[in-house]
Structure prediction request, 377 residues.
Amino acid sequence: MEPVRVLHEDVILDPGGIEALLMNLYRHIDRERLQFDFMVHRPQKGFYEDLVTDLGGRIYRTPPFDPFHYQAYKSSVVEILKTHPEYKVFHCHAELNLWPLQYAKKLGVPTRIAHSHNAKTTINLKYFFFLYEKLLIKNYCTDMFMCSTPAGEWSFGKAAVRSGRVRFIKNGVEVDRFRFNEQVRAAVRQELGFEDHLVIGHVGRFMYQKNHLFLIDIFREIYLQNPKARLVMVGDGQLRADCEQKVCRLGLQDAVLFLGVRSDVDRLLQAFDLFLFPSLWEGLPLTGVEAQAAGLPVLMSDVITPEVHIVPQLRTLSVKDSPARWARTALELVEDYRRVDCAKQVIDAGFDIQSTADWLQEFYLERTKQAMKGILK
Prediction:
């Protein structure tokens, strides 16, 4: 018997919170019963595409969404959906997903999910299309998912969240993979040459919302107080060059390590002494959950939803606070802190990926079954 296939929509399968969650889910579903396929909107091959095809998934490409020349985008999305009527569930993850959901409704796709992964967006030309989307999206989706209450309110409105119409889908992680391991910690610190250093770590795409330039200012204050401090930044993106230039201007090039995109974040987190995360906004950061699963003290901005607060060694500050105050708080957090196994706390808080995958799998299968029986149209 062929597995049920669900079509996921995303911009590109490159490293990021949405994509990491999707791959985590994909690895933990029963792929003999359920398969994931992906519609992406970029011509270049994404980081996770080989994993998708290895697991049995298919990838469809459309042109990017262009507000002024969207006919090619529309034609491509419509052609994919018309050619593949086997998809009874269409799960959209990109910020601008009103249009594909609209096309899917017209073509009769029974289950159409709008999933909010962010609590804000960058103000640019597309921002105004996003505001337009917020007004209409409930007319075209059958289900609304959110990774946090602020993300749900941002995309669907407070009334929809309060009414319970928006489901909270927790950004689960592979807890056992991130569980603290003293041997791995020692090995990675030796690989990095940081055996006797204070290692501050950050994982995130180099984009405006992650606030990397402020993060570097914070680290400079830490470094002034502790010259043995080192900053490890994992990820890539359009603002990486700006960050590298700032590090050089501040004379910190020997104390800051840019590692780029890595597939061993679980190992790197073992080597850190503190996870620093001063984002301007987030939905619910997957890396923040992973850091807590690794037993790390975490210092993040107070705009991030309290729903991500799992362990007691997590502190928050405002991005309006000075870099010096962030540095003092960071040093207070790591002083005399001994790493402990926090896996059970993360599981008890509901952030184990298997729990999320099990629920979604049954949701997809039940909706597909209903559609095949004609209950959903």
Summary: The longest strand covers residues 34-40. The chain has two domains: 4-172+352-372, 175-348. Residues 55 and 270 are 28 Å apart (CA to CA). The two ends are 23 Å apart (CA to CA).
